[in-house]
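Lab meeting minutes (informal)
Scribe: AK
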Amino acid sequence: MAANPIALEAPYELPAPAQAPARHRRWLADAVLAWPVPLALLAIWYIAARYEWVPPQVLPTPEAVAQTFGELYRSGELWANLQVSALRVAGGFAVGLAGGLTLGAAMGLSSRFRDYVYPTFKAFSQVPVLGWLPLLMLLVGIDEALKIILIAKAALVPIAINTYKGIHNVPVRYLEVARVLRLTRWQTLSRVVFPAAAAPVWNGVRYGLTHAWLALVVVELLASSEGLGYMIVYGRQLFQLDMVISAVIVVGIVGFALDKSLALAERAVLRWRKPGF
């Protein structure tokens, strides 16, 4: 008597988790929660200027600032100064990025180099940008070299420190596995050390760009005849506070956009990293 064939059932497949809708909902919630504080500040500003709690010469109305902003944009003055500031940040940040990655990697990979350099570097990093300004003005003048050097210094410090810490804190078990697999020095660096240190290094790059942008504004406030910082000083000298506030708003928007751009790039580069909350 022939045995009846046994019908094999297809394995039950678990439904894929709805990650995309949850991610979109989280993004929408974050976007909504980000608006109450700036809207409240705008309302306080409008009420204070409307009822002259602060003299109009000191605190212009939002309408006056918006009108001045439009005039500066149409005349090209705002765009020209923004271009100058952007080029300075790009040049200084590029120098600071290259120097910070090189110095941080050298300190992280060589204990002897770290023993020689790190104490001096730590003392160097404690001096703020303004502390170097008088000395550098005597050495290089007040031309573009001064601004590039100070912006590069502001970017170099957080990049170097985060690069050094990222490499130095690579788990020892990762290196032990590399030794067991008999990886070469370069293979260990390219496949183990650098990928493990990527997250803190990228955080250093973000901090470095933020510090570079802040240093730019400080330098232009004190030693510049063009740029967004110069617009702030020029408006204050003419007592045109609407111009001052317009330039400050642009500084804030550009700095926020730069940080958000690096955050989006971080999600793409480090997409394997999952948030804890």
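Next up, CB showed the second protein from the same session:
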Amino acid sequence: MDSASSSEDDSNNIVQHKGWSENNEPRMFEKTVEEKGCKEIVEALTEEELEAMPDENMPMRHFRADKGNVTKAIKRIKYAIQWRQDFGVERILRAACNGNPTNDEEKEIRSILMEESSTGKLYVRNHDNDNRAILYLYPVRENSNHPEHNIMNLVYQIERSIACTEKNGLEKIVIVADFKNWKLKDASPMEVTKKTIHILQECYVERVAKFFITNAPIIFRTFWSLVQPFLDPVTKEKVVFCTSNKGILKLRTSFDEKKVEKCALGVSDLKAFDVTDYYATPLDTTFDEM
């Protein structure tokens, strides 16, 4: 085979990326504008970066996140892709989804995740009324003083909630953070808090629809005043404090009271979280779908 034929075959084997895929998320701009923007983003990425994208719609999310600013979107998507590779997101998912790991690295990762998840401080359960997976966060159930392990667990749970949402043709998840009985001593170290915010804002752009904060005590205001400066305006708009009548109404209209936990005004006695059962199921399965 001559070099020209070989080059043509290699070209045919390259996956052609559009930078968008059809789903049920609402558009921010006209279809032609969004597709043109995605095309420009894709053309600015290397083949290695394109292959490292977690899904075809990543360019579209960045285009929308940056309000159509292609230059900014390119910079941020390159950072997010590099972060996924450096952090080893795919490696974590392989280990978590392997019920019978055979190598030491996978065994260690799976063990860390199961220990971090053992108290049910962070896990995916059911969906909201728009079919978005719900990621529950219970700060008072914190059982770790290892920042790296804590963040690893966070990333896995975000990935799981995304997988549970994408099967319904959507991309954005819902987070419910319950602060019942929370005290300042329960606050995460600022290092972990800042990393959490950074990951949600820069590594998972356009992945959160709403962030509900329930049962926040008065003392929580002190912690919130420290956290707010690290939130960008878009993230702040997604935060719903469920202490006012308006916040409570938003809770009631967002969820089926028979399918959510008590912190989200649920009325059913849902089964208690079990970490073994949770990790025995596929990535795109919420705890109540087992």
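CB comment: The longest helix spans residues 147-166.
No objections, moving on.
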